[in-house]
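Hey, I was hoping to borrow your eyes for a little while. I'm sending you its amino acid sequence along with the backbone structure tokens. Take your time with it, there's no hurry, and the full record follows here.
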Amino acid sequence: MTAIHRRTQLGKTGPGVFPIALGCMGMSGAYGPSDERESIATIHEAIERGVTLLDTADFYANGHNELLIRRALEGQRAKVQLSVKFGAMRGPDGALVGFDGRPAAVKNFVTYSLQRLGVDYIDVYRPARLDPAVPIEDTVGAIAELVKGGYVRNIGLSEVGAETIRRAAKVHPLSDLQIEYALITREPEKAIFPTLAELGMSATLYGVLSRGLLTGAKAEGARQHFPRFSGEAGQRNAAAVARFHAFAAERGMTPAQLAVAWVLAKQPMLVPVVGARTRKQLLDVLGALDKPLSPADVAAVEATLPTDAIAGTRYPEQQMKLLDSER
């Protein structure tokens, strides 16, 4: 692996991180069964390969994901940066029951995350969504107090639009926005990415594999609820993705490598977050760093799988309505 010493800066104020981040949500059963030993081994392998940024949330499997990361990081905390999302609330059955961005809630959430993770501070702390009942200035202001107290190093946002980003940035410098971005999900290019560039912010890009759609994953676990995987849309998308797979094979790449390489070529200053659950998946994805795409390659990929070839929204309709980034 040739990229171990590369770093991508998370905005003007954030840390320098490895050019690919590891998303840990899938290690807690989000997309079907996962093996804890393999998950921990995958985190260890990622660190050994130079990966520094680990992404999680306090509501992933009701705290299980943070506890898993705690076990994986014993003796290795200094080698990584932790990006933690907060705010989503769950019932005892695991169902999402709302969102809370009030200042008191922010301080409560971080207290429990620090305990579960077994750390003294969080590198990047961010609300997972915008709470429509709480001004973003209040939420970010509460995190700013945590920065002063030494509990948080940097402030990030997630799935919010340009106007909200600007308002939040007036309260405290922001490192990055977490937003979904992939070959078939390119809306952030219109207004969000230009706003980030203007404000000196970066982005951590999740959904780079489109929840496994681009790699041919089965519609199991959470995927069965996403429009792009089901019904007529699912059948149409499978045919389009087959062309993408054929293109990757012609280039001597796996579909995952091609999807990640496209993002790295298209947005070299931003950081894709890839949810590898096994060491095999991790090493496959990291291989993209050694197979960069030329501008001609990028154009060819986009011609093979244009965004209008994919049917369905990235989230179910009700969730789409809640996304500030889609307004």
In short: The two ends are 40 Å apart (CA to CA). DSSP finds eleven helices and twelve strands in the chain. The first strand starts at residue 8 and ends at 9.
